[in-house]
Design brief:
The protein has a single domain (4-11, 39-92, 119-321), classed as UDP-N-acetylmuramoyl-L-alanine:D-glutamate ligase. Helix content is 34%, strand content 25%. The chain is built from eleven helices and 13 strands. Helix 9 (273-287) packs across helix 10 (300-306).
């Protein structure tokens, strides 16, 4: 059967500018491109999971404006159930200022999000999940909505025995009551450092950061390490999974969201975490080779094709497609 995934999180319209270099304080530079694209960590993760074959429901909030309509339509077009994407009466839809620097040295990005309606999502908006959350195989959350909402959803999930994945981005303090409800936590290097005070650079530092996160009560720790891939620990063993280069990097904006959506789709379909990491790295490798957030997210067929020769692509295909 298709994995059933609940995503509680953000929807953001990205306003994307590309240039050869970032401007310095007080400086103006000439850019070479501008576009808008649907994004938001929650929506990106939901769309990625849906494109990979999961049955996905999203809970979030947008403004009563054209950006909000576009974001809902984009999610719906990828197969996401948008019934529980609510509309804020006063706040506008969130926007993200995405700056992409691309030159001979490589590609980097900087993102500033104005949360708008995302921060209008209230704990009472998710009361309906108290019982229905048991319908899902996993819940995915991030830090682009109020922590009170995350805490309530995680509490409901824990009470029903439903696994919870927290992607603690953008970086912010994780409340103890939330940590105690998590099955998985997946920070990048910056977020891991902010949470535990250890930057996971080098094997010893990664091991220490993982240990500290386990000590906080999280059963499974997954740290993404950029070009170095990722590290996963279930408390018994620590596994490093290298990144997978599919094509030259064009835009890394949605790489982490693609990874989270793919990993959660695979593990909720019964795939081992070690194999799910490879699946997720393939998805992220495709994503960074394209421009935009949701526009860059690959389909199931594209990821399976990229996995040829890994030795277990048939297992993943059958598990997710239910054949």
């Amino acid at each position: 059967m298709k994995p059933k995934i609940l995503v509680v999180g953000s929807l953001v319209m990205d306003l994307i500018v590309t240039a050869e270099r970032f401007c310095q304080a007080g400086e103006t530079v000439i850019g070479n491109g501008f576009s808008t694209a649907p994004g938001g960590k929650g929506a990106n993760q939901a769309v990625q999971a849906a494109r990979l074959g999961a049955e996905v429901t999203m809970v979030g909030k947008v403004g009563r404006d054209d950006f909000g309509k576009s974001l809902i339509n984009s999610a719906k077009a990828s197969g996401v159930n948008t019934e529980y994407i609510f509309t804020a009466e006063a706040a506008p839809t969130a926007v993200g200022n995405v700056q992409i620097q691309k030159n001979s040295s490589g590609t980097e990005n900087r993102i500033t999000v104005v949360p708008g309606a995302n921060f209008e999502l209230r704990a009472e908006d998710v009361d309906f999940l108290k019982e229905s959350i048991s319908d899902y195989d996993i819940v995915i959350m991030q830090h682009e909505i109020p922590q009170a909402v995350n805490c309530k959803v995680a509490e409901y999930a824990k009470a029903k025995g439903v696994p919870v994945m927290l992607n603690p981005a953008p970086s912010a303090e994780v409340p103890e009551e939330l940590l105690g409800c998590l099955t998985y936590i997946s920070p990048n290097e910056h977020e891991a450092e902010d949470i535990v005070g250890v930057r996971p650079e080098g094997a010893n530092a990664v091991e220490k950061a993982v240990h500290e996160l386990h000590e906080m009560g999280v059963a499974n720790v997954l740290i993404t390490l950029g070009k170095e891939g990722c590290a996963f620990s279930d408390g018994n063993s620590l596994v490093h999974s290298p990144s997978i280069d599919i094509a030259p990097v064009i835009d890394p904006t949605a790489a982490g969201d693609s990874f989270i959506g793919a990993f959660c789709t695979a593990v909720s379909a019964g795939i081992s975490p070690e194999k799910a990491l490879v699946f997720a790295n393939c998805a992220a490798g495709i994503t960074v080779s394209r421009m935009g957030a949701q526009t860059s997210l690959p389909t199931f067929g594209e990821v399976i094709s990229a996995m040829k020769g890994k030795g277990f692509e048939t297992e993943i295909y059958n598990s997710i497609k239910g054949e």
